[in-house]
């Protein structure tokens, strides 16, 4: 097979004008291009040839067709897909913002209110996809884009499509179906039935990182990280994070899917309620201080009134 850049340029030149390579990884390569018909910038994602060939190709095409039906303000829409020679590709709008990974690198942990807002927007996107029978399976900061402050989820359906590739191919390309820092225990166990709650676990890992500055399980080796997901317990979130928010995140990190929120919408609602209550009601110790101060003020006023009236 020839140079993918040359193949894409040759096969798609009538529709897209290639401008630059945006990045590459185990899944494939992403190119920045201009849609000649609509005169807009798009991202062309070319799947690694070893991941979309033979028996895996029909699965890829099927998942892409299903994903094309998703229309939601927090999901990157699919504009086009097909084959360029022997290369499978799909096209999405070019999002000019940054990934959540870039935001984390630039700012570290986020304020609770901002982290909860991003989490709820992602959960809304996941809930919509889940209602349409689509589980993302690879929620991570790299797949969450921030456009003008708004979270948008990318690459729906690809993890499931790529799970049809054989283990040797995945190892050779370095691609993992589910990223070690954010993968759910049931994905690690290789369960055949993976449902919406795997995305809730992965999103909880992301939210934990937004609040703590690091994922819930880290280690010097991939094996150590995966062991944490299966057997470990995450450290408590920083004390500045309200207890109700901590409780919502820790519930979503439950090892057993049945112990988590049953839907992404309920996880979002739990986070929203926790954040709202935390912001509207002062901590217990502070409330007692306020009560004591108020009592002293009232006693002082009473003494002044008695003195004046006497």
Account of the 3D structure:
- With 310 residues, the chain is of the alpha+beta class.
- It is built from twelve helices and eight strands.
- It has a five-stranded antiparallel sheet with strand order 1-2-3-5-4.
- α4 packs antiparallel against α8 (197-212), α4 runs antiparallel to α11 (264-280) and α10 (243-252) packs antiparallel against α11.
- It starts with a helix and ends with a helix.
In helices, the fraction of residues equals 40-55%
**How far apart, in Å, are the first and last alpha carbons?**
103 Å
Tell me the β content.
15-25%
User: What's the β-strand tally?
Assistant: 8
What is the mean pLDDT?
84
Q: Describe the main β-sheet briefly.
A: 5 strands, antiparallel
**What structural class do the secondary elements suggest?**
alpha+beta
Unreliable segments of 5+ consecutive residues: 164-177, 279-291
Shape: globular
Helix-strand pattern? HEEEHEEEHHEEHHHHHHHH
**Which strand order do you get reading across the main beta sheet?**
1-2-3-5-4
Number of helices: 12
Radius of gyration from CA coordinates: 24 Å
SSE layout:
Elements: H1 4-12, E1 16-24, E2 28-35, E3 40-47, H2 56-67, E4 80-84, E5 87-93, E6 98-99, H3 100-107, H4 112-131, E7 144-147, E8 150-153, H5 158-162, H6 167-173, H7 185-188, H8 197-212, H9 222-231, H10 243-252, H11 264-280, H12 284-309
Antiparallel strand pairs: 1-2, 2-3, 3-5, 4-5, 6-7, 7-8
Helix pairs in contact: 4-8, 4-11, 10-11
């Amino acid at each position: 097979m020839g140079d993918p850049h040359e193949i894409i340029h040759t096969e798609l030149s009538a529709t897209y004008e290639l401008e630059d390579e945006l990045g590459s990884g185990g899944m494939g390569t992403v190119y920045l291009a201009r849609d000649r018909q609509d005169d807009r910038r798009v991202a062309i994602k070319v799947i690694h040839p070893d991941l979309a060939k033979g028996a895996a190709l029909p699965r890829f095409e099927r998942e892409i067709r299903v994903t094309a039906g998703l229309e939601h303000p927090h999901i990157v829409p699919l504009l086009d897909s097909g084959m360029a020679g022997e290369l499978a590709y799909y096209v999405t709008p070019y999002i000019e913002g940054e990934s959540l990974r870039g935001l984390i690198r630039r700012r570290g942990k986020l304020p609770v209110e901002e982290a909860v807002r991003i989490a709820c927007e992602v959960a809304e996107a996941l809930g919509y996809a889940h209602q349409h029978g689509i589980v993302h399976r690879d929620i991570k900061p790299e797949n969450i884009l921030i456009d003008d402050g708004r979270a948008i989820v990318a690459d729906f359906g690809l993890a499931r499509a790529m799970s049809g590739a054989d283990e040797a191919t995945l190892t050779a390309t370095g691609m993992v179906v589910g990223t070690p820092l954010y993968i759910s225990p049931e994905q690690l166990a290789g369960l055949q039935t993976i449902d919406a709650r795997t995305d809730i676990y992965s999103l909880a890992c992301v939210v934990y990182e937004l609040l703590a500055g690091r994922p819930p399980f880290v280690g010097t080796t991939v094996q150590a990280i995966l062991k944490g997901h299966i057997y470990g317990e995450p450290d408590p979130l920083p004390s500045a994070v309200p207890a109700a928010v901590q409780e919502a995140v820790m519930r979503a990190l439950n090892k057993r899917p049945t112990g988590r929120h049953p839907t992404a919408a309920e996880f979002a609602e739990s986070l929203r309620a926790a954040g709202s209550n935390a912001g509207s009601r002062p901590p217990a110790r502070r409330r007692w201080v306020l009560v004591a101060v108020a009592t002293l003020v009232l006693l002082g006023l009473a003494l002044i009134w008695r003195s004046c009236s006497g």
